[in-house]
Amino acid sequence: MSARSLPRRRRLQASIVAVATAGLVLTGCTGNTVDNSGDEDRATAVSDNDEAGETVTIGFSGPAADHGWLAAINSSAQEEAEKYEDIDLQVAEGTNDPSQQIAQVETFINNGVDAIVLLPTDGAALTDVAIEAMEAGIPVVNVDREFSSPFAARTTILGDNYGMGVSAGTYACQLIEENNIADPVIAEIAGLDSLPLTQDRSDGFKDALEACDQEVDNRVAAEFTVESGEEQASNLLQAEDHIDIIWNHDDDQGVGVKAAFDNAERDEFFFIGGAGSRNAMDWIRDGEMEATVLYPPTQAADGIRLARLIAQGKGISDLVQVEVPRRIVLNAPVVTADNVEEYYDLGFES
User: Fold this and answer.
1) SS3 letters across the chain
2) CATH numeric code, 22-32+43-159+298-329
3) Which of 183, 287, 303, 326 has the most CB atoms at less than 10 Å from its CB?
């Protein structure tokens, strides 16, 4: 039975992780005033953060763009900076070499930038130089991969890897209930098992499945590449002659995963992806994929906004607090045919 032939009810989006969706609220500073044109007791929020202020120089160092999501991180940061005439963005060459990235941050410090946005290739390796920047009075915005000291960053903005797994598992439970699947066979195609982010995603998936008394029946691990995705998906299909639900952690490796499905002419299962690529969203539109769980590629863009606010001494208008928070974790929503148009523009090219 094809997953596409099963009845599709309106999906309840699995945004079960209680987190701050910072990317949607970074457009104003906190303030109240009286609207004299009407009820004088009514307070009206004043939001002028998008108006040009004092020009700030922001240094940005990101990863080598050898993966669709990572490329989107870099491009979204630069595109966001271009929206503001009061941002002077200094962009270092993307790298996977911690030593080179340390040198880049040292250059930013020597140049006296007003803030640094940094997605470290290795959080532990970049901690000391980030502390050096902070001690020089330069606020550091840490993106995606955390430093090993709280003194290394003014603000940390993260995706939610555990939350991705929880969202995928909760949605899988929903599919099982909606489609009355008895004794479902559930498979998982992970990324690199040596990475904490992969472990977090798998832990979240496992924990969410326990809520509906289910477990993963077959799990393979790929390497976040198209080739490894195809290889491991082929191995999975050979091991299981019937599968009801497959969760693949990463939509970039999902290109290979989908190729393996097509080559084997297998589509009896609900296929759930991860990260939110444009390919995945196109497949959802076309009915060839059930859903994907978003891991926002806008984290560095949000980091640029946060760095601008911090350097200009502003806060976030939707919070009572007048300063930018020290830690922000973005949501991991499930994207389905019901809401794909809402998220489509966030999809990145694999």
Assistant:
1) CCHHHCCCCCCCCCCCCCCCCHHHCCCCCCCEEECCCCCCCCEEECCCCCCCCCCEEEEEECCCCCCHHHHHHHHHHHHHHHCCCCEEEEECCCCCCHHHHHHHHHHHHHHCCCEEEECCCCHHHHHHHHHHHHHCCCCEEEECCCCCCHHHCCEEEECCHHHHHHHHHHHHHHHHHHCCCCCCCEEEEECCCCCHHHHHHHHHHHHHHHCCCCCCCEEEECCCCHHHHHHHHHHHHHHCCCCCEEEECCHHHHHHHHHHHHHHCCCCCEEEEEECEHHHHHHHHCCCCCEEEECCCCHHHHHHHHHHHHHCCCCCCCCCCCCCCCEEECCCCEECCCCHHHHHHHCECC
2) 3.40.50.2300
3) 303
